[in-house]
Structure formats: C-alpha cells, structure tokens
Design goal:
By secondary structure, this protein is of the alpha+beta class. The protein has eight helices and 13 strands. Strands 1, 2, 3, 4, 5, 6, 7, 8, 9, 10, 11, 12 and 13 form a 13-stranded mixed sheet that branches. Keywords: Transferase.
C-alpha cells in the first residue's frame, strides 16, 4: 500500500466494512498515517476486524481513512482508533468517517459512541469530533496517594484472595451490575487482566463475590495504578471497598511503590469521598470523555 501524496477527493471514496483481509493496510495506516489515533488494547485489532468493527473509506482499491470501534456493550461502544492517509483533509476526513459510521451503528441498535483519547498526542481530534456532533459527557479525574498507609483494614469478615481465570464469569457478571454500559470491561480485557495482571484480588464472604480490585504496576513497580475497583451494589457502604483498598495499599507498600494512582469520573461523588478519606488527592489532571448520540 502506498500512502496518498496528492490531495484526496473524499467525494469519490466509498465506505465499506473492514475485514481481516485488510489487516496489512489497517496496520500500516495506524502506524504511519500523519493523523492517527490509537486506543486499542493489545491483541484487539484482529478480533475486531473479524467482528466487523471497522470501517474504511476506499478510493480505487486503497483505503484512505479508517475508524475502529471497540467491543459493543448494551447499546454503547467506543471509538478506539482512527487514521487518515496523507492527502486527506483532516476535518473532511473525520466528518466523512463519522457519516459512514452512523448508519452502521444505527443498524446495530447502538445509541451512543464514546471517545476518550490522550490530550497530548490526540488533542488534534477532540475539536473535530465536537464539530461533528460529539458533546462532553464527563471528565475523568486523576487521584494519587503518596503515603502508603490506610485508616483501617476494613471488615475482617471479608476475605481477600487472588483471582483466577475460573473466576472470569463471576467477575464479568459483577462488573455489569456495578457500572454503566460505557464503563463495563469486555471479556477479552478481563481475561487478560486475570491471566497476566500483577494484581487482581477478589473480596468474598461465605463464598459469595462481593467485589474486586485490579491494578497494574509501572516503572519497575515504583507506581501502582488502580485500574478498577468494584463492589456489588447491595454491598456498598459496608466497608468492602475499604477492605480492597487497604489490601492494595499493602501490596504497593511491599513492592515498594512510591505512589498509587487511580482515575474516577467527575460525577462519581461517592467514590471520591472514599478516595479522599483513604488519603488520595486529586492531581489536577483530567481527561474529557465525549459522547455522540447515534440517533441524535
């Protein structure tokens, strides 16, 4: 595949669903295109192409622009990648891709398309998405904790144990009960976290799953990031989250880590109260989450 050198006339381009046969072209565009956004998880590209979660604009026999969707959950999905070949006018390219995506999403009964990219490397895309109809859904706030202590260990009746792959079905069930559809983790992400993550712990009582916490380590263990903490709705306010956070702090202290970080939605006041009480403080960093109403 050659990247386009001259200005591309998008009015002559034809949208089509991408397939695994397009993998070489898709990979090259996502790697080399002058304008690109990449938010896919490792190993997701081929399965998503197999599931027809990508759309391309084809001119002649070449793809000049593409967009990849994440795994659909309920009536929502995320924009996970986008690339424009050289010669494609940026605003027109983004608008044309979204125009091609809308009927595909509508036909699949999707109601919302979400986006959250890196403000530094992907900042070029945000104003274009807003011009195309995306609105601000919320901000994701960053918290950190540098003193690795805890106010309490939480209720001793709650047992904490490492998760295993055999727990995947129960973890997925709990995740769907705890979060809005756009925040639910898909089975591939959860499976990889269970199989390869350095820290994935379950909170149980009498064999019943009450909650879980999943964290990653960075910079040779000097930073621990809490990716996910979930407590069954009927168990909230009973110290389950406290028990999980205390265990995580103990894990970070043993590494030994220098700092613990986490992200939470700006509207999640309940979680923020818990984090403040536990010694986490906002860093001032925030990431905008955008939403496009498919039928709006």
């Amino acid at each position: 595949m050659r990247l386009f050198r001259k200005s591309v006339d998008l009015s002559r381009a034809t949208p089509r669903i991408l397939t695994p046969a397009d993998l070489p072209v898709v990979s090259r565009l996502l790697r080399d295109a002058p304008r690109r956004y990449y938010g896919l998880s490792s190993g997701d590209l081929v399965p998503l192409l197999e599931a027809q979660q990508g759309i391309g604009l084809e001119l002649g026999q070449e793809i000049c622009a593409l967009a990849m969707l994440g795994w659909p959950i309920a009536a929502t999905c995320w924009l996970r990648a986008l690339a424009l070949a050289e010669g494609v006018e940026v605003q027109a390219g983004v608008a044309a891709l979204l125009a091609a995506l809308r009927p595909v999403l509508a036909a699949r009964d999707m109601q919302s398309l979400f986006y959250a990219g890196d403000e530094g490397s992907d900042g070029w895309l945000v104003p274009l998405l807003k011009q195309a109809g995306f609105g601000v859904e919320t901000d994701v706030l960053v918290y950190e904790k540098r003193r690795l202590d805890w106010p309490t260990l939480g209720p001793e009746r709650v047992q904490i144990r490492p998760a295993a792959l055999v727990d995947l079905a129960e973890v997925l069930r709990l995740d769907q009960c705890c979060f809005e559809p756009q925040w639910v983790k898909d089975s591939l992400i959860m499976r990889d976290a269970l199989a390869q993550g350095p820290y994935f712990m379950l909170a149980e009582q009498d064999g019943a799953l009450l909650g879980y916490a999943y964290a990653t380590t960075h910079f040779q263990g000097r930073l621990v990031h809490l990716v996910r903490i979930a407590v069954a709705p009927e168990q909230r306010g009973l110290g389950i989250g406290v028990r999980l956070l205390a265990d995580l702090v103990g894990y970070a202290k043993q590494l030994p880590a220098h700092v613990l970080t986490l992200n939470t939605q700006a509207y999640n006041a309940r979680a923020q109260r818990l984090y403040h009480w536990f010694g986490f403080r906002p860093t001032g960093e925030a990431q905008q989450v955008l939403r496009l109403g498919v039928r709006g």
